[in-house]
């Protein structure tokens, strides 16, 4: 079924690398949250895997990529398990440094938004599907993590987060439509999404809220 | 794959209208709940979209309609965004008037139960699939909304709600099996489902519970 | 699409029996939890059905078995409804006896882990997909139940639970790869998974945790 740009081997390798890097980044963020909720070893591994692969699995179901790569390709499971075990071993260190965790999470956001939009286009979908599924890939795993830990998803509450993924995914689609060179089409959206998220964290940018002042 | 009744253009237009009206109704109900939970602009748009399209996306995955119409057809996204923005702008007015919100929600319930059952039949499924997916279409978005806002789904607790959707979906299937005229087969189940929900709200009808008296 | 071992009628009947027995077991566990949360009649039926069939529906979506058997095969719905009604009628009796409920849940765990892995292989998937989807089949419904009741999933917190399903699913895959006789390949993993879960309940085995002592 993949029709667009099939055979461009180098580009595909680049995207695979992007995807695995995102998996690693999100698995650390998932394992950290699960560890904080005092889950057992299996719970930490499961939440790390779901955070890392949940968004991509939903994307694959929506584009008909059966079975989802997150389930059938051992590299995802392997990457998530390694990241989770590293988090457990290095936890006292990870906990003190919330900074690197957020950095990893912001990287995962950019990497997944771009890879998700790219894969949806590769399967012949239109721009809207690609942008929406780029966002789903980027924030779906984190939403599943928060739902399973029974808390309001910080994805929906935090500083610019899903909106950064939206911009990253939209830039990816724009790049593919305008046929930008692969390196640009891949890295520019990743850097923009990561940069937006990173700056919003540091400068406490927020999207407008409309509630009473005292609510938060 | 759609085999039943393909080509009956007018009927299809009627069902599309029903589906978009349901989208609008549920998006308002979702945006109102998100606004009350003090989510930011993107969170409100996301919850409105998920409430409006979540049930239909799950239905489409279950019948193999890939990609789901909620993702690929811009009219759903557009309708949900317009409804959400209207809700934000008119919020002081919407909040005082919980009545119209519930009215919209009851309308969405009927419209989606009927459209969901209809689409499942159109894809060649049996009566059981059509009825269950009618209910999923009608209540799935609301359940996703409540799960994301980390509260016990009112879908499961409230006065006659999902059971009204069940009756609407079952009537739709009956109508298609008995080959009722399209207008009847469409509007009768919508009106019955809406009416049941509406009356149960006003008259505080409830399904039996079996718990201790003091629990609620 | 089913390619492996098609036509072995007796074996298929055995697996179907296993699947329905798991459905019955999990529906009781779901109905009991819903009853405790004071849901109404429809809510209890819905949670029983989702607990019993939710994992299998996700598995079927992931392997492309459309529509999912949990929706299209009346025996699942019928079994779940009967189990839920029995639970309601016999509730005073069920509540005093948490023991049989846990016993049923442990049985469902083993039965579903094995059936899920088996069905994934039958659809031509690799060992990783089969093992992961065996676990999803076994614990997915329970996770959905807990998410809908807005509590941290006990699946992730409890004594050896999902890890028992993992071992059951892995043994199933091993048995099919080594071509064990059907009765062994079916019952050995079920008994091992059930036994692990059962012993962990009685002997309070737990996987390691890494949190502060006071947290639980």
From TrEMBL, chains A, B, C:
Topological type in the membrane: Multi-pass membrane protein
UniProt superkingdom: Bacteria
Location in or out of the cell: Cell membrane
Start and end residues of each Glycine transporter domain: 17-91, 103-174
Keyword annotations: Cell membrane, Membrane, Transmembrane, Transmembrane helix
Any Gene Ontology CC annotation: plasma membrane
Transmembrane segments: 14-35, 41-62, 74-94, 129-148, 160-178, 184-203
InterPro entries xrefs: Gly_transporter
Family listed: Belongs to the UPF0126 family.
Protein name (record): Glycine transporter domain-containing protein
């Amino acid at each position: 079924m993949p029709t667009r740009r099939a055979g461009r081997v180098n580009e595909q390798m680049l995207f695979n690398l992007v995807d695995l890097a995102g998996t690693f980044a999100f698995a650390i963020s998932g394992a950290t949250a699960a560890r904080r909720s005092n889950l057992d070893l299996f719970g930490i591994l499961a939440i790390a895997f779901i955070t890392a692969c949940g968004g991509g699995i939903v994307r694959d179901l929506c584009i008909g990529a059966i079975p989802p790569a997150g389930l059938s390709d051992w590299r995802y499971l392997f990457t998530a398990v390694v990241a989770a075990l590293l988090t457990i071993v290095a936890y006292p260190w990870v906990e003190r440094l919330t900074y690197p965790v957020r950095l990893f999470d912001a990287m995962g956001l950019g990497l997944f938004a771009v890879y998700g939009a790219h894969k949806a286009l590769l399967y012949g979908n239109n721009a809207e599907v690609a942008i929406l599924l780029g966002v789903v890939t980027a924030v779906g795993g984190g939403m599943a993590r928060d739902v399973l830990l029974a808390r309001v998803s910080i994805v929906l509450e935090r500083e610019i987060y899903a909106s950064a993924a939206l911009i990253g995914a939209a830039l990816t689609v724009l790049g593919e439509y305008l046929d930008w060179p692969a390196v640009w089409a891949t890295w520019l959206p990743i850097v923009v999404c990561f940069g937006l998220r990173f700056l919003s964290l540091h400068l406490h940018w927020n999207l407008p809220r409309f509630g009473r002042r005292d609510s938060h």
